[in-house]
Amino acid sequence: MLTGLRRMKKGDRIIVEQLLDAKVVNVWQAITDLAKMKQWYFDNINHFQPEIGSVSQFIVKSGKRTFTHLWKVIDVNPPTKICYSWKYLEYPGDSVVCFDLIDEKGQAKLTLSQTVLEDFPDDIQEFKNESCRAGWNYFLGDRLPEFLKENKNKHNE
């Protein structure tokens, strides 16, 4: 079995790094402020607080499948780190997602890590390592930089 096509299993870790043309505080706001998260991340998040113990639940549909996202904030160190557990109501599996930010000469370096704590199902396409990595690259490589650029342009007008 090719490792890139393998399902998310306990101990697996996905890491995505992105250098963003924005200040750390602006990226922090984008990844923790509900109104901003809805613009680039998931538009149907109904609740999010960057506070330990805060719980979020929202539904994402993929074809005929429903994925009720269950998040619980487990670590926060504003404006440089937030981690939350990430699982689904309909499927087994559990992981921790962490966003870490550092300043690199006025730009924000974002490192996302997703660590699998409990195996996800083998028969669900969306739980392939390759699918998860592609999703993070889409959000952090396309959507977030575009959001930050648009936000920066609005404030410079």
Task: Supply database-style keywords.
3 helices; alpha+beta; Alpha-D-Glucose-1,6-Bisphosphate, Chain A, domain 4; single chain; 6 strands; 157 residues; six-stranded antiparallel sheet
What features would you describe in this structure?
- The model has no long low-confidence stretch (mean pLDDT 93).
- The protein has helices at 24-32, 34-40, 129-156, and strands at 13-20, 55-62, 65-77, 81-88, 94-104, 107-118.
- The protein has one domain (24-156): Alpha-D-Glucose-1,6-Bisphosphate, Chain A, domain 4 (2-Layer Sandwich).
- Helix content is 28%, strand content 38%.
- A 6-stranded antiparallel sheet has the order 1-6-5-4-3-2, with helices on one face.
- With 157 residues, the protein is α+β, with helices and mostly antiparallel strands.
- 17% of the residues are buried.
